[in-house]
Amino acid sequence: TPSSIQILRGEMLDFADGLRHWPDGLLLIRNGRIEALGHASDLLPQIAPDQLVESFTGLLLPGFIDTHIHYPQTGIIASHGEQLLDWLNRYTFPREMAFANPQLAAEEANFFLDQLARNGTTTAVVYPTVHPVSVDALCNAAQARHQTILTGKVMMDRFAPPELLDTPDSAYHDSKALIERWHGQGRLKYVLTPRFAPTSSPEQLTRVGQLRREHPEVYLQTHLSENLKEVAWVKELYPKAKDYLDVYDHYGLLGERSLFGHCIHLSDREWQQMAASGSVIAFCPTSNLFLGSGLFDLERCHREQIRLSLATDVGGGTSFSLLTTLGEAYKVARLQGADLNPQQAFYQITLGNARALGLEQQIGSLEPGKYADLVLLDTAATPLLNKRCQLAETLEEKLFALMFLGGEQAIAATWVAGQRLYARKTV
Ligand code: GUN
Ligand code: ZN
């Protein structure tokens, strides 16, 4: 196939070296990857006169990265009442049962990836359900979009409806087959996914540890210390463990490719072990507030130098938008006397999250060689956002306003590997 070149012209920024800004930038994309980036005045002389240059209005950024989200919970987002454990039993588990059906799973996977695109999210780390077909459905849909999706079969062998349970053995064999089928296929990555300590027996966690040793190339994700009742339950179920994190450590599940969702109620020892092991936290503010789980200690996370990522956690989280998620993260920081400035904020959902996944060579900024995963933000998307941005004196002020007034409406277009997956309809 002949190589394809696309050229985009307009205002661009990324966070590769602090805030980098091209008020009139030119981005050259060849075969889905960024080939060059610079000021239009510098690069235009090198462009053949017959080459099409697509001009846009708005702010072009690297696509957003979501490090913790549940695709089967799309349909139960915003379900009233209950904290974590009751919410799981009342809403989440009944819905997840439907994903045994491959046709339903395929439809939901496509709807889910469309939701990511219309929110400017180009990469996500995703929980499916316990059913291998739910993984196949998501991976097939992601493949068709040439998208980086990290996912892997949920493992749970107790304390859920029987339709959602696997066994230590079936979890091992099914995960192994899925790793072979999907890890490294196109841009896909496999993630070992024991749901959380309560729903995995010691025998199952032993098998997860075995998978991890046999496949050091794959990731691992789970939940950690989200809710006080959950923490007390883990203490009952694993009485010999020092604490919640020690359960996972006992089975060899910590490390640089391990992502732990929430981490709200950690002990001093757990904070230190998170740091020492190089494990990554997924901070999910809309979920933590919605489920009344608690306030994540962002300041402590920085102080302990723990690797941080930011995530939506839909359907415990209430928005697919990482802009909205940043706004809620800011409020959580404020409540604790801490800050989250716009530059740190937009760094986090782009290059910061890419680094948390060890994928900074491929995604997270507009640097040449990376995939052309892009989002176009419209600072005039609504009358109010427009008014606020008109009065803004700096780019940082506009970015900050987008965190509170932007949301889904501010996403004008989204590209994955140079292909436009979403363009907002303008009436
Ligand atoms: N802990 C175990 N499972 C889940 C889940 O699906 N969502 C959240 N927020 N926490 C969990
Ligand atoms: Zn979750």
From TrEMBL:
<dbReference type="InterPro" id="IPR014311">
    <property type="entry name" value="Guanine_deaminase"/>
</dbReference>
<protein>
    <recommendedName>
        <fullName>Guanine deaminase</fullName>
        <ecNumber>3.5.4.3</ecNumber>
    </recommendedName>
</protein>
<dbReference type="InterPro" id="IPR011059">
    <property type="entry name" value="Metal-dep_hydrolase_composite"/>
</dbReference>
<dbReference type="Pfam" id="PF01979">
    <property type="entry name" value="Amidohydro_1"/>
</dbReference>
<comment type="pathway">
    <text>Purine metabolism; guanine degradation; xanthine from guanine: step 1/1.</text>
</comment>
<dbReference type="InterPro" id="IPR051607">
    <property type="entry name" value="Metallo-dep_hydrolases"/>
</dbReference>
<dbReference type="GO" id="GO:0008892">
    <property type="term" value="F:guanine deaminase activity"/>
</dbReference>
<dbReference type="GO" id="GO:0005829">
    <property type="term" value="C:cytosol"/>
</dbReference>
<dbReference type="InterPro" id="IPR032466">
    <property type="entry name" value="Metal_Hydrolase"/>
</dbReference>
<keyword id="KW-0378">Hydrolase</keyword>
<comment type="function">
    <text>Catalyzes the hydrolytic deamination of guanine, producing xanthine and ammonia.</text>
</comment>
<keyword id="KW-0479">Metal-binding</keyword>
<comment type="similarity">
    <text>Belongs to the metallo-dependent hydrolases superfamily. ATZ/TRZ family.</text>
</comment>
<dbReference type="GO" id="GO:0006147">
    <property type="term" value="P:guanine catabolic process"/>
</dbReference>
<keyword id="KW-0862">Zinc</keyword>
<dbReference type="GO" id="GO:0008270">
    <property type="term" value="F:zinc ion binding"/>
</dbReference>
<dbReference type="InterPro" id="IPR006680">
    <property type="entry name" value="Amidohydro-rel"/>
</dbReference>
<feature type="domain" description="Amidohydrolase-related">
    <location>
        <begin position="60"/>
        <end position="420"/>
    </location>
</feature>
